[in-house]
Structures are given as structure tokens and as C-alpha cells.
Amino acid sequence: MSRSDVVHIARAWIGTPYVHQASVRGAGADCLGLIRGIWRELHGHEPEAAPAYTPDWGEYDGAELLLAGARRNLLPDDEADELGQVLLFRMRSGAVAKHLGIVSAVGARPAFIHAYDRHGVTESPLSTPWRQRIAARFRFP
Question: In terms of pTM, does the model score above 0.85?
């Protein structure tokens, strides 16, 4: 799927309120819910049910469930000069990777679309602090 197709779909989700474990455009979504919703628009049914998870970005239990799920269902994007389509972030050193976003702009002003508490689905600059937290890059099949 092309970057522009994915970005077009993701931008349609902007303004959706943050609701933990939800995935309904306009009604509520978290970061995984945004990715799930985009998947449904691209491919129909989701490839697997999402397990229950906490909203805490600072978990240190070592279970990389989100990373494992991304590896099962998305394609790795390891091109050094590209950001990919889907970014997985590790918000704290040593913590499990627990945040996702969609690359919406590259070049001099990179940006990404993501959902988080008190902000909902929004487009943010992919600033240096965000870039330093990237744990993995993927693209939709």
C-alpha cells in the first residue's frame, strides 16, 4: 500500500477522541486502535484479535507483545533512509515498546499521526525526541 494511501486514511481519523482499546473513527481510538482501523480500511477484517493491554507506556515486564504482533502482521521496513509507514516507539529506556504512529510527512519537517490520552488522534512533528524513541519501523502489506 502506498504511503499516500495510508496517510490519507490516517488523516481521516484526526480528531477522534482517545479511548483506551477502542478503534472506531470519530468515536474513539488509542494508538493501536488507529492502526487497526487503518488495517480494516486497507484489508477488511483484522488478522487477529488484540489482547487486553494497559495504557501504561512505562511497563518493564519484558513482554514485547506489541512488537511481536507487528512482526506477525506487518512488513519490516529497515531501509536506513526511510522512516517507514508504521512506527513503534519505546517511550522509556528499558521499557517495552508500547506506542504506534503513522508517518505522515518526511523530509525537512517529518511528522506522524498517533493517538494518545488527552489529545486523541493528532498529527505531531516527528521531532528528535520522538525519533530517538523509535524501536521498529513497519509498513502495511
Answer: yes
Question: How far out from the chain centre does Cα 83 lie?
Answer: 13
Mean pLDDT of the chain: 92
Q: Which parts of the chain fold into alpha helices (H)?
A: 3-12, 31-43, 65-73, 128-131
**End-to-end distance of the chain based on CA atoms, in angstroms?**
7
Contact between 29 and 16 (Cβ < 8 Å): yes
What sign for the dihedral angle of Cα 62, 121, 11, 35?
Answer: positive
Q: What is the crossing angle of helices 31-43 and 3-12, to 10°?
A: 120
> How crowded is the C-beta side of 66, counted as CA atoms within 13 Å?
30
Comparing 28-37, 58-67, 105-114, 123-132, which segment has the lowest mean pLDDT?
58-67
Render pLDDT for 53-85 as a digit per residue (tens, 0 to 9): 888 877 777 789 999 999 999 999 876 556 779
3 Rama sector, left if φ>0, alpha if ψ -120 to 50, beta otherwise:
alpha
Q: Are 67 and 88 in contact (CB under 8 A)?
A: yes
